[in-house]
Amino acid sequence: MRPDSKLWSRVYILSPLLGYVLGIDCYKCYSFNGMDVKCEDTFETDVSTEHLIKRDCFYGYFRGNYCIKLRGKRKDGSTILVRDCSDNDWGRHCGDITFEFANGKEDIDGCLETCDYDGCNSGNKLITNRHVIWIVSLLIGIILRL
């Protein structure tokens, strides 16, 4: 067997696992005027908010690659907080943001944050994703031993 074909056979064997590694789990909830206390900041990443995690989060018909958090005020003065997933990296910015939803869109004065690892749209800023590090380390170890 040629050395490069051995590498491709390794990739072929591991390719079914990529779907598990490439999907993202995001917190998904909406709170208008503080109505959903579990969604509001201060946000606890414990058993009480576990039901808000969406495994393999989808944004429309597309698998989400990013988590988002939008916090701000609507034109009528009420507050809005959205935790969801997205198929695009929207970056980080504050100011006027157009929020699109099923029934239309509205302008929000607030901040939008995008991140790219499981559960990163919680209220905590410094979260390390130990599971991803562990899986990647395991896969590298398997590839090197084949």
TrEMBL record:
Record's keyword terms, sorted: Glycoprotein, Signal
The organism's place on the tree of life at top rank: Eukaryota
UniProt xrefs under Pfam families: QVR
Cross-referenced InterPro entries: QVR-like
Keyword Glycoprotein on entry: yes
The protein's name in its UniProt record: Protein quiver
Organism the protein comes from: Sinanodonta woodiana (Chinese pond mussel)
